[in-house]
Amino acid sequence: MMLYIIFLLLLPYFSNGISIYKQEKLLESLNESLKDESLSKDFCDICKTTMTHVVEMARNGTDIADIEDYILKRCLKEETQLPFVCEGLVANFTDEGVFVLKQTNYTANHICGAFVKDCSATDDPLNDMWRFVVPLGKPPVKGWPKVTNPQSTLRVLHLTDIHIDHEYSPGAEAKCKTKSGEKLLCCRVYPSVNNSKIKVPAGYWGSPYDCDIPYRTFVNAIEHISKNDKFDYIIVTGDMESHDVWAYSKIKTMTNVLNITSVLQEYFPKTPIYQATGNHEGVPMDALGHHSMQEYSKRGPAWLYNTFAQAWKRDLPTDTQSDIKYRASYAIKPFSGLKIISLNTIYCSKNNLYNYINQTDPDDTMSWLATELFESEKISEKVHIISHIPPGSSYCLKGWSFNFYNVVYRFEDTITALIYGHTHKDSFEIYYENADVNGRPYHVNFVAPSLTTDSHNNPAFRVYTIDGNYQGSSYTILESETYYANLTEADEYNPPKWKLEYKLKEDFGMKDLSPASFHELANILNNEIDVFQKFYTYYNRNHKDCNNECRRNIICGLRSARSYDKATLCP
C-alpha cells in the first residue's frame, strides 16, 4: 500500500482541498471524496492508470530517483502544494512505499479497491484478517468491581499528543492555505505564501486552529501542573513531533524525545513517568518496521527504540530494556497487585506501510501481550494498558483490532484500565460481548484529549483518580478530570489559565466509570440532544456545531472499540 503516493497522484483531481499535513486524517478524507458515487468511476480510472505505472516502475527495477521524479512532477503540476512540501513528502515516503511494493503482491486493483467505491472486487488490504488464538481457560466473569469506600486512591496525570512546533510564529496566519486552497500546518511563516493580509494572527501561546503548540506552552503547562498537583505517577502516550511530516528526520525526533522527557523529569524529579510510542515518532511518520522484514537493519526502528530505552530508563527497571529495544513495549509493576503494560500500537497503524508486508502479529507483540496478561491472571494481578492508537479507530487495521478485542474479552477481569490518545479528542470506546451493542458491555477505552491545539482544539490534559495501593485494590478508574486552557484569553502578557473543565462521573451523573455506566451514557447522548451538546463541547474543548449525522457518527464511535465494524456496532 502506498497511501501517500496515491494521495499525491490523485490530489490534483479533487474538487475540494484536503489538508495534506494532517496525515492521520488523510485516508478518511480520501475515502470520503472517493466514495462519492458521481466521482468514483473517474477516480477509479485515474487511480488504476497511475498506480499501475508506479507498481510497474517499482517492480521493474526503475531507479528510485526516477520514481520520485515522476511523483514529484505530478504533485507540482497543479500547484496543489508548496514545492518544498511536495519535495519533502516525496523524499520521505517514496522509498518506503516502493520497498513495500517490491515485497508484496499488491496490484493497482488491490490499492484502488481500498480507496475508490466499486473500483475493484479484489480484497481490500485494509480489511485483511489474521487469527490470533487467545489462551484457553477463561475464568467465570466476576463482574465490574463496585468500589464504594476505597481505603486509598492514586492520582495519575495523563499527557498525550503534545506535538511541539519549534517553528511556531506568533502573528503568522492561523488559517493558512496554499494558492489552490490546500491547508498547511499553520501558525508558521512560509516565505513562498502571500501573508500580506493576516486574517487570524497566531496567538503568543497557541491558536485553536490547524496549528501545533509552541515550546513555551508545553513548558507553561508542565510548570503549572507541577506547582498545583501531586501525582503517584504520570502517563505519556506518544506523539511529540509537530505535524510537518514532510520535514521529519531521525535526529529531530531523537532530540525531541530526549528533550521533552528531560523537561518532564526536571519538573517531576521524584514522580515515575511511564511512556508509550506514538505514530509521529516514526521517520517517516508511522514507519516502524518489524524484525521479520528484509533490510531490517537498514529500515527498522532500532534507532528510535534505543532512544526510548535511553530516555525512559530513569523510571523503569533494567529488565524492561530488552522489550523496549525489540518492540517498544514493556511491562512494569509500580504497586503491589498492579501491572502497567505500555503497548506499541503503531503495529496496527494503517499508515505504517511496513505492516502490509506481513500484518500477522508484528514482532509477536499480541503474543507477548497475551503472555503478560496470562501471567497476571494466574496471580490475581490487575493490569492497565497504556498505548497510543485506540483500537476502535479506523486508523487501526482491522485484523489487529479484532484480535485485540478478543484478547480484552478473554482477560476482562484482569484488565482494569485501557488508556489511549491519538485522536486529539476527549472520548471513549465501549467493548460489547459478541460485538453486540445490545449485549453486555465488558470494557471501555479511555481516550484522552491532546495538549496540542491541532484540529481546532484548546490544549488539555487528563487526571485520573484510581482505586489502589492497598490489599484487595480493584485498580479501577473512579473519576476522570479534564483540565484545559482557553487560548483566546491568553496573550504575551497574560499566560494561559489552566483550569478544570469537567469531571466525567460527576458532570454526567454516572453511577461509576464501569463499562455498563458508559453504555448508559452513550444511550443518553443518543437520546438527549442537550446532554450530547455538552459532551461535544468537551469533546473538542471548543464550541462547534454538530448536526444529526455528526452526532450519529460520534455516538457510533463511542460504541465501537473495534475498527472497520460500524455495520455491526452501529445498527
CATH superfamily of the largest domain: Metallo-dependent phosphatases
Overall strand count = 12
Q: What can be said about the biggest beta sheet?
A: 6 strands, mixed
Report low-confidence residues grouped into runs of 5 or more.
9-38
CATH class of the largest domain: Alpha Beta
CA-CA gap between termini: 31 Å
Tertiary shape = globular
Sheet with the most strands: spatial strand order:
3-2-1-10-11-12
- CATH topology title of the largest domain: Purple Acid Phosphatase, chain A, domain 2
Radius of gyration, in Å, reads 23 Å
**What is the total number of structural domains?**
2
N-to-C order of helices and strands: HHHHHHEHEHEHHHEEHEHEEEEEEHHHHH
Q: What is the CATH architecture assignment of the largest domain?
A: 4-Layer Sandwich
Give the fraction of residues assigned to helices: 25-40%
- Overall pLDDT level: 89
**Residue fraction in strands:** 5-15%
